[in-house]
From TrEMBL:
This is Membrane fusion protein of RND family multidrug efflux pump. PANTHER family: HLYD FAMILY OF SECRETION PROTEINS, MULTIDRUG RESISTANCE PROTEIN MDTA. NCBIfam families: RND_mfp. Belongs to the membrane fusion protein (MFP) (TC 8.A.1) family. The lineage of its organism: Bacteria, Pseudomonadati, Campylobacterota, Epsilonproteobacteria, Campylobacterales.
Length: 236
């Protein structure tokens, strides 16, 4: 490397060092996904399949309402559909020998029976509460025998993602033009002596009018939700 190239390299490194800055930020640990779960229909809790701390897969059955009457209606609808289908297929074979209006009536009964079965199965499905994503149950708010209302929204469980976390950073508003997606965040969690590094993947476009702080997010894993900490954002 020539002397001139060395000088240029030093100048470039010096320029980068001047423009880079470390911005202090605090943060809270939040779950990447979280939700309060409720039935969309009304009824009485019949069974609860999980407890606080249960780890569940997506679509796992969490609880169900008393639904014997709806199951019976589903079975009735299945029988009605079988008969309507048989009548329709029988008339279809002799379609050329009967008038069109008569044939259409059998077709209507068959199509209506299919819709009625679908409707009853939808009502039955609403009596089951399933996990919307893989996660861990963090709260249980009802017990077997409790009445829940789909209209009043009775919460049954709280669930949050099992490992995926996000750090909600707070930093001074004066740096609103300095912090960008891709900037590095070096931080420590309260009570933990280890140092961690993450990358900002989201910067909020607004400023909190009360605290005069801006927010950003950094992905993390496994930290208990609710922890806090602080660190420095290294801007590019």
């Amino acid at each position: 490397m020539t002397r001139m190239n060395k000088v240029l390299l030093i100048v470039i490194m010096f320029t980068v060092a001047i423009h880079a800055e470390d911005i202090y930020a605090t943060f809270d640990v939040k779950a990447e996904q979280s939700a309060s779960l409720a039935f969309s229909s009304s009824g009485i809790i019949d069974k609860m399949h999980v407890e606080i701390g249960s780890v569940v897969k997506k679509d796992a059955l969490l609880a169900q309402l008393i639904n014997h009457d709806i199951i019976a209606m589903v079975n009735v609808s299945k029988v009605a559909l079988d008969y309507a289908k048989s009548d329709y297929l029988r008339q279809k074979k002799v379609k050329q020998h009967i008038n069109e209006a008569q044939f259409d009536s059998y077709l209507y009964k068959y199509e209506n029976a299919k819709v009625q079965l679908q409707y009853q199965e939808t009502l039955l499905d609403k009596t089951y509460l399933r996990a919307p994503f893989e996660g861990i149950i963090t709260a249980k708010k009802v017990e077997i025998g409790d009445v829940v209302s789909g209209q009043m929204i009775t919460e049954v469980f709280d669930i949050q993602s099992l490992k995926e976390r996000k750090l909600i950073l707070k930093f001074d508003q004066k740096y609103h033009n300095s912090v960008n997606v891709g900037d590095t965040f070096n931080y420590k969690v309260d009570g933990d002596t280890n140092a961690y590094t993450g990358t900002i993947y989201k910067v909020y476009p607004t400023i909190d009018s009360k605290s005069r702080k801006m927010s950003a997010e950094v992905k993390a894993e496994k930290f208990p939700v609710g922890l806090f900490g602080d660190g420095y954002i290294t801007t590019k």
